[in-house]
């Protein structure tokens, strides 16, 4: 669907919404279906080829509406109101289109926290089962959680919220910034010797700084043997696993207790839409999410899966990865620059060969120009520029234009500063 | 704005969005404004009378766009992608219109938790300041938080997440289910005598079961004297405070450390949009919210404030309260029924004079009919029906129709069951 078709479909949707709200009182306010009614109405899997938009729209009445509680019907007097007005809907349409992220980029943060809370519960339960005399209050203060020093800041914050010790596992450039089994094993042994109780490890597939992948085939069996909850944060990289060629990055997933990725990052579903899997449902009950309420987020996922089809989604991921490779080639062809981390998906970490100062100045110059926008990261103490493929509409010409701008500014900076 | 105007404005918005996305690369990707630039561009207060929609739309370019980072520009290579596609936007429009709440009704839950975490931090900091030798790990296990036995379940859950003791303060029908100062004072003294550290009290203005209001003019000074963080959960009732006649319900707010209400409940702003105030900004830094990212929610609030004006919003609240009073009169005029709690805002708690069984049967019969939808609550062990004014479009005729249905079913039930 392009902008031209969106103009048409958007207007149809506006009419559909107006019709829905004008006639809402003719609908049965409370659904007369059993949980699971959807299963027989929709296919087991997302379509390989896109569905037609007409089919999707037809299914709104056939599939979705029979299960909806009509909160805005004048026959609805349950709970408390949930607001709804035409101006708010218009603003929300615009907000969805602007699609800017308020503070940073993730509700994977919540998945990390939720998994940690479930792990804390499980750990306390197991300890009390083996030693019922032990006072429960003392257990939490002995618990220790781990993550990579490359992990997202939300992991540390989750530990702080839950009031448990959080330790960062050091990574090395020579290991491609991935956590190694040996390092985790050693830290666990040291902590156990000191009387602590290791209970949670947050592995990352596709770290924020450099898109590094922790070795979960090594780490998983260690966690399982030590009864440590292994949560996998694949917030960004997770979307790529719909392509068979990237699936090997997921090897070891069978050892995980929980897994999260953000469909709102790289799978064409507007913010926010974060997905989480858990191995044992019962571990998570009571902790599904922090807020009680949630938006009807799966609706947009369903539209996207159907309108793109698996193939369309795969093409989209592959195109971004190709564009990243194209940018990598441009960087490698220029002797003044270096690539700072393996380019696996849609992120290229690069820098001028030279001081941090020269790279900081380059980035400042780039962003002050306001033509393109990049953010940095620190890798082994080096100031590195992150070139992340983001927009749905990015083409090869944008990449080349960006590179031209970067090299031009680099030239200026190198003439001005010692490097 | 009615459905007819929405048809027109919605289609204009679709074009505006398509124009925005088709031409996004001509925009400056990263804003060239200083924090606070908005202040001089918008009025200090929401308009008393509605603005015109044309004015609102004009301000999108004048006010909003200069501050936007265009995450979907092909010149944006920062962070990671945030997804955006036409089908997802269409689905989100529909999702906003359906506006059903996924699980229950609140992200006030998050405010409660966030306030509790800040309170925990502050308490630990104060204790360590007065006794630097004390081990930090022991402090949390001594902390105790309080809330009414009428408080939302999310309060208890917040305590569980933060790993602190949570105590429920009993309320009485004779006190209109409000927490009394004397009860709180006594519990604090008992807990302190037992070596515990009271640190947090969540007061409710407008409880979920019966819309009861805790006596914050009494409770506030006690909390302040004991250095207990007082959080006020006004998730539902908060919207009514835009009407001067309901403002006295807020007396004592000056003692609160934090305050929350959900604009998405009763202020015409689509789900989700929860607002929180905190007395001392620095107490909350690092805890603003659980997820890192957030949607651009203030946009819809701005549209709604401008398109309704303060007057329009006040009229809306007053209309719901009047409809609730109308329903209350119908109940009071029928000797078989009784009102179970004061009707202050848009909630009427009522029951058949008789057993819980007869009331449970009545509610089941009502909901099975699927014409109207109500949920129950328990008040002093009595099964009570909650009639909450919810829909934007509810009129007097819907109230009368609902009452006719209820009395008709009540008659059937009373003939079948002893009561």
TrEMBL record, chains A, B:
<dbReference type="InterPro" id="IPR010977">
    <property type="entry name" value="Aromatic_deC"/>
</dbReference>
<keyword id="KW-0663">Pyridoxal phosphate</keyword>
<keyword id="KW-0456">Lyase</keyword>
<dbReference type="GO" id="GO:0019752">
    <property type="term" value="P:carboxylic acid metabolic process"/>
</dbReference>
<dbReference type="InterPro" id="IPR021115">
    <property type="entry name" value="Pyridoxal-P_BS"/>
</dbReference>
<dbReference type="GO" id="GO:0006520">
    <property type="term" value="P:amino acid metabolic process"/>
</dbReference>
<dbReference type="GO" id="GO:0030170">
    <property type="term" value="F:pyridoxal phosphate binding"/>
</dbReference>
<dbReference type="GO" id="GO:0004058">
    <property type="term" value="F:aromatic-L-amino-acid decarboxylase activity"/>
</dbReference>
<dbReference type="GO" id="GO:0042427">
    <property type="term" value="P:serotonin biosynthetic process"/>
</dbReference>
<dbReference type="InterPro" id="IPR015424">
    <property type="entry name" value="PyrdxlP-dep_Trfase"/>
</dbReference>
<comment type="pathway">
    <text>Catecholamine biosynthesis; dopamine biosynthesis; dopamine from L-tyrosine: step 2/2.</text>
</comment>
<dbReference type="Pfam" id="PF00282">
    <property type="entry name" value="Pyridoxal_deC"/>
</dbReference>
<comment type="similarity">
    <text>Belongs to the group II decarboxylase family.</text>
</comment>
<dbReference type="InterPro" id="IPR015421">
    <property type="entry name" value="PyrdxlP-dep_Trfase_major"/>
</dbReference>
<comment type="subunit">
    <text>Homodimer.</text>
</comment>
<keyword id="KW-0127">Catecholamine biosynthesis</keyword>
<dbReference type="InterPro" id="IPR015422">
    <property type="entry name" value="PyrdxlP-dep_Trfase_small"/>
</dbReference>
<keyword id="KW-0210">Decarboxylase</keyword>
<dbReference type="GO" id="GO:0042423">
    <property type="term" value="P:catecholamine biosynthetic process"/>
</dbReference>
<dbReference type="GO" id="GO:0005737">
    <property type="term" value="C:cytoplasm"/>
</dbReference>
<feature type="modified residue" description="N6-(pyridoxal phosphate)lysine">
    <location>
        <position position="265"/>
    </location>
</feature>
<dbReference type="InterPro" id="IPR002129">
    <property type="entry name" value="PyrdxlP-dep_de-COase"/>
</dbReference>
<protein>
    <recommendedName>
        <fullName>Aromatic-L-amino-acid decarboxylase</fullName>
        <ecNumber>4.1.1.28</ecNumber>
    </recommendedName>
</protein>
